[in-house]
Amino acid sequence: MKNLYQPLVRPLLFSLDAETAHHFTIASLRRLSHFGPALRALKRFTPPSKPKTLFGLTFRNPIGLAAGLDKNGVALPAWEALGFGFIEIGTVTAVAQPGNPKPRIFRLPQQQALINRLGFNNDGADAVAKRLRRVRETGRWPAVPVGINIGKSRTTPLEHATNDYLYSFRLLRDFADYVTLNVSSPNTPGLRELQEPAALSRLLHAIGSEPGPVAKPLIVKISPDLSLVELEAVLAVCEENGVAAIIATNTTLDHSLIPSELDEKGGLSGAPLREKSTALVRDIAANSKIPVIASGGICDAESAREKFDAGAKLAQLYTGFIFRGPALLREIMEKL
Ligand SMILES: Cc1cc2nc3c(=O)[nH]c(=O)nc-3n(C[C@H](O)[C@H](O)[C@H](O)COP(=O)(O)O)c2cc1C
Hints:
Bound molecules: flavin mononucleotide
Strand order of the largest sheet: 3-4-7-8-9-10-12-13
Oligomer: single chain
């Protein structure tokens, strides 16, 4: 099918402010998710499958949807139809929350980048669990793995973070093929302190020893702004606690690669994050046996290949998908 995203859809979306465009897209994909013929049309974008097995799960292909695009899990069938090899929803927090004041997403088209300071706007774990139950009961659950990314509610003090994560974990784990602990968003004050060894160890131990019918693979999503020493400490704690994989990385607070007149407060993603994020993938692969899921600056087939060459086993898209649309997936899969 002819790719209409860049010539037609993107100009329309980019004529709207970034958050309005986001809501419009998600609302459209949510509607399509209920409509068989539309899903079949979307499936024309699906690249041929290239299965990959990791931590006991089979991924249809190694390219997944990164957390944040579908925070509330409203469009699972559409993401599958677009061809993602796995889908990560969230970040979901225990308490529903509105996030930071708008505007809070900024496009930098020349730089193929976004800056966001959303601050975990989401419907909360109870509402998301209810929605996921409905998707399952109505037979619309996707055939590709679904990861659920959880984080700390803003109103919960850092010292009670573990209980906050546990609340979401208990409600959502049954729906998740894997659970990601997000300890690296820069937009929730104090969150990244949960990457410190003692705090991370407490969190992983509490979640890991939670009784349940089936143990779910636990994944930790880390910041690209960790020093090598900090990274090594994170890896040691993850190894001790049997973490299934590490997502490297979240957005960065290092804005040195973008012009100062375009700068905004928040996490930077897209092309300017690419190298920093790849360097972390390489450092993890060199220092640990924990598999890496790469996220950060994948905007074309070459930047995807770079992640796998650096040692990643899977990869996820966000900003590149906003700029390139569904054709990006096919391009990556054809050239991998
Ligand atoms: C608007 C926006 C919202 C995001 N929200 C989340 C989130 O809720 N949870 C999370 O773990 N990562 C979130 N991220 C980070 C992405 O999942 C991804 O790790 C990061 O943007 C780097 O990948 P990219 O360069 O391909 O965008 C968000 C990113 C953007 C741009």
